[in-house]
Write the structure tokens for this entry.
Amino acid sequence: MALDLPHREGLPGFGDLLAQDIDRSSMVFHRFDLLAMRNLVYMQNELQDLQSRLKNQDQSDIDARKQDILDGHPDKDTVLHRVDWTALEAASKIANPELLVGDVKEAKERWELIMTIRKRLEKYRTALIQQWEINRLDPPTVKTHHALLSAIDEPHQERFQRDIEALYCTAAVVDENPNKMLALASLRSPLYDDRLTSWVDKHFTWGIKKDNTYSRVAYYSLDSIRWRSSLIFLLFSFIWIGGTLCALYPMCTKLNCEDAVWFELLFILICTLLFLGFCSILGMPRTEMFGTVFGYLSILLVFVSLNKAA
């Protein structure tokens, strides 16, 4: 459906623009990879420091235990040496500074270190998982990117031109260089990545596109593009299968010599390879491509077998 450009200025208006696309493909944002990596590095360095402090405490425990043995107290059982969770928790609740001496003080320090490690480690791993998920987001397609630029650069959209740096926080968005577009993330990945659908999207959108009267941008459903490309592929497949069967029928009926079988198999092999090449050129996923080719080959072999039996 045709969508109007927002009439509000600045960030609210730009947010309205991104939210108008019914396919959600216009929801494009900056990745901020530099900030994300800097944050992860700092968090990692902080955890390394906490790990060093924990190792130092463990070494202090070992040294204290050795000293007790040298002093003739091998059975000495202190809070710190036992590292009992209940005792550590009890030491953490002591608020009187006069009681925080010796092993009790060290036990409370260990408790505080454990709590700090727990919080920092949880945040660090959450940040890692979030970054992993963000890395799986695709950059916007060239067409989506160009559409956003066209909407921003409308002659009567001075408010977007004035705030373009603030809106996207980077000059990468106003540059159509595909390498710089990698700095952006689309919250909805493209529904297709094969060449046929891309060709349909570029050259055969008649009857699908609906121009916006307020903009040079045309809005249309990506699902419609996908279905149209699927219909084109099915039509071509039926024509190819029908043509192959029409060529095989005279071979099966008119050639009576024993060598006719080899001619038929050779013809089937050539047609199958050509069909495989066509699917490969379209950029079909490997599983779909081999499934389609196997089905095509099965139809030809069954057709030849039935004719031989008849």
Summary: The chain has a mean pLDDT of 74.
